[in-house]
C-alpha cells in the first residue's frame, strides 16, 4: 500500500485544476495513445524512481507539475524504496490516472481521515482512508 497525506492529495488536484484553467485543459497521461481518456480533474499515480502522485493540468512553458511522494517509497527518504516499489507497484515504470471523483467525495465525508491509502493488485486499484 502507498499512503499520501489527504491535504497533499487535495493540493495536487487543485494544482492540476488551476494549471488546466490557465493553460487549456488537462494533459493526457497516456501520451496520446488513448485520446480524451484521463483528461479530467484528478492526478497521476506514477511508479518510476519511487512512487508518487503528480498534478495533471497542462503546464505553461518551463513550469513543472506538483509532485508528492508516497510515505513508503521516496528515493531520498527510504533506503528500501526500490524493493518496496517492486513489491507493491511492479518492477516496470508505470502511470495510472486517478479521477478526482473517486477520492474527493470520500475526503468530504470523512474529515478525520489523514491519509489516502492506494493499494494495487495486478487487475485493480483500491482506495482507503486512514486516520492517524
Can you tell me about this structure?
The chain has 132 residues and is an alpha+beta fold. The protein has one domain (7-99). It contains three helices and seven strands; from the N terminus they run βαβββαβαββ. The strands form two sheets. Strands 4-3-2-5 form a four-stranded antiparallel sheet. Strands 1-6-7 form a three-stranded antiparallel sheet. The longest helix is centred in the N-terminal third of the chain and has 18 residues, at 6-23.
Shape: globular
Please count the beta strands (DSSP E, at least 2 residues each). Answer: 7
User: How big is the Rg?
Assistant: 14 Å
SSE pattern, N- to C-terminal: EHEEEHEHEE
Quick synopsis:
The chain is α+β, with helices and mostly antiparallel strands and 132 residues long. The protein has helices spanning 6-23, 81-88, 100-109; strands spanning 2-5, 42-48, 50-55, 67-69, 94-99, 115-120, 125-130.
Give the topology, please.
Elements: E1 2-5, H1 6-23, E2 42-48, E3 50-55, E4 67-69, H2 81-88, E5 94-99, H3 100-109, E6 115-120, E7 125-130
Antiparallel strand pairs: 1-6, 2-3, 2-5, 3-4, 6-7
Provide the descriptors you would attach to this structure in a database record.
alpha+beta; single chain; 27% helix; 132 residues; four-stranded antiparallel sheet
Amino acid at each position: 500500500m502507498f499512503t499520501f497525506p489527504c491535504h497533499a492529495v487535495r493540493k495536487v488536484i487543485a494544482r492540476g485544476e488551476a494549471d488546466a484553467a490557465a493553460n487549456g485543459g488537462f494533459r493526457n497521461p497516456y501520451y496520446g495513445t488513448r485520446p480524451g481518456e484521463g483528461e479530467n480533474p484528478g492526478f497521476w499515480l506514477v511508479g518510476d524512481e519511487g512512487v508518487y502522485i503528480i498534478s495533471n493540468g497542462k503546464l505553461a512553458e518551463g513550469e513543472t507539475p506538483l509532485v508528492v511522494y508516497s510515505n513508503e517509497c521516496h528515493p531520498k527518504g527510504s533506503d528500501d524504496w526500490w524493493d518496496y516499489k517492486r513489491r507493491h507497484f511492479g518492477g516496470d515504470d508505470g502511470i495510472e490516472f486517478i479521477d478526482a471523483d473517486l477520492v474527493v467525495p470520500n475526503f468530504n465525508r470523512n474529515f478525520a481521515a489523514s491519509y489516502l491509502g492506494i493499494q494495487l493488485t495486478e487487475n485493480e486499484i483500491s482506495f482507503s482512508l486512514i486516520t492517524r
